[in-house]
Amino acid sequence: MDTRVKAVELRELWRACKEDGDERARERLVVAYSPLVKFVAGRMAAGLPSHVDEGDLISYGLLGLIGAIARYDLEREIKFETFAVSRIKGAIIDELRSLDWVPRSVRSKAREVERTHSQLENRLGRAPSEEEMAETLGVGVDDFRATLLEISNSSILALDDLWTVADPDGGQISLLDTIRDPNAVDPEREMDAAEFKDRLAGAIEELPERERLVIALYYYENLTLREIGEVLGVTESRVSQLHTKAVLGMRGHLSNHRDD
């Protein structure tokens, strides 16, 4: 958020926007929260092909921010920033997918890797190694790693996607956005959220040690892929491969245990 906008002024802008329908207040809120769009777009651009322009991502993200301001409920037990980041990212992803810039062959490879991981995990009772994945796919380990890098460089693949759920209005919200007022708890929804967190924790626990470390450093410590590479003593490309394998593996694990 733009720190030049004081908290008191911000509250007044929200009141004017929501209660009075003041368009000027809405525009000022967009300006105040626009740094969020730049932050999200910058982070996403770092993992996308060079031909994807960050300026375009910012434009897509601004639409998400505007939508977030329109839909945000001041009574919700969640900070606007948390709500908005999910909307901004969703708007960027939706626009990129609508442009269909990811080759179908890459999408197909990602599905095949995910499916193979799921099958091997079922058979072995643990997460498969790269060597086992490569053998099952009928390729060499180097070729398998090249495939992971191709998927990573050509698609929007992030652990955050595992936490998205369908919005009744057709959009996307993060699991965090389902938190409700403590005085109006929906037990069924809380149970579903708790079960999903348990399943996700189980999926992370099943990952090989190095992949678990990549997930922890990237999502919990907010290190970049390059910084993680320095910690592990490997190249940034190798970290990208490990991250991609981890996320596809977790998706396969969650698919395996969907009905558990």
Total of domains: 2
Assign the CATH superfamily of the largest domain: Winged helix-like DNA-binding domain superfamily/Winged helix DNA-binding domain
Distance between the termini: 41 Å
**Which overall shape is indicated by the principal axes computed on the Cα atoms?**
elongated
Which architecture of the largest domain would the CATH scheme give at its second level?
Orthogonal Bundle
Number of strands: 2
Kindly state the percentage of residues in helix.
55-70%
Order of helices and strands: HHHHHHHEEHHHH
Q: Report on the biggest sheet.
A: 2 strands, antiparallel
At the first level of CATH, the class of the largest domain is Mainly Alpha
CATH fold field value of the largest domain: Arc Repressor Mutant, subunit A
Rg, Å, rounded: 20 Å
β-sheet strand percentage: under 5%
Can you give the mean pLDDT? 78
Major sheet strand order: 1-2
Low-confidence stretches: 162-188
Number of alpha- plus pi-helical segments: 11
Structural overview:
With 260 residues, the chain is an all-alpha fold. It folds into 2 domains: 7-101, Orthogonal Bundle (Rna Polymerase Sigma Factor, Chain: A), CATH 1.10.1740; 104-159 and 184-256, Winged helix-like DNA-binding domain superfamily/Winged helix DNA-binding domain (Arc Repressor Mutant, subunit A). Helix content is 68%, strand content 2%. Strands 1-2 form a two-stranded antiparallel sheet. Strand 1 and strand 2 (172-174) form a beta hairpin. The relative contact order is 0.10.
